[in-house]
C-alpha cells in the first residue's frame, strides 16, 4: 500500500515537471542533425539548413517572447505560420529532388501524427 501511494506521488510529480527551454541554437542544432540523418544532407546543405533553422528558431522565440509580454497565450498564429512557410520554402530550395521528396513525406507523416494526437486528445476530453 505504501509503495502504491509513493508511486502515485512520483507519477504526479513527473507530470508537473517542466522541461527546460532550449535556446534557438540548441533547437537548430537538434533539428538540423535530425534532418542531416533523415535526408542524407551533404556538408554544404547541412550548413545552409542549420542557418535557416537557426533563423527560424530565433524568430519564433522572439515572437513567443512578445506574445508572453502582451499576455497572449497562443500568440499570432498568422506570423508563426508565415515563419514556418518561409523556412519550408528555404529548406526545399537547398534540397535535391530525392531529398525534397523524402522531406515532403516526413512533413506529411508529422502532420498525420499531429492530427491523430489532436483527435486522441479531443476523445479524452469528451470521455
Query: Helical segment tally?
Result: 5
Question: What percent of residues are in strands?
Answer: under 5%
Q: N-to-C terminal Cα separation, in Å? A: 29 Å
Q: Indicate the overall shape.
A: globular
SSE sequence, one letter per element: HHHHH
Helix content: over 70%
Radius of gyration (Å): 19 Å
The structure class reads mainly alpha
Please summarize the sheet with the most strands.
none
For the secondary structure, the number of strands is 0
Task: Describe the model.
With 127 residues, the protein is mainly alpha-helical. The chain has a domain at 8-95. The chain contains five helices and no strands. The protein has helices spanning 2-16, 24-39, 43-70, 77-94, 97-126. Helix 2 (24-39) runs antiparallel to helix 3 (43-70) and helix 3 (43-70) runs antiparallel to helix 4. The chain is globular and about 45 Å long.
What structural keywords apply?
globular; disordered N terminus
Topology:
Blueprint lengths: L1 H15 L7 H16 L3 H28 L6 H18 L2 H30 L1
Helix pairs in contact: 2-3, 3-4
In short:
The chain is mainly alpha-helical and 127 residues long. The protein has helices spanning 2-16, 24-39, 43-70, 77-94, 97-126.
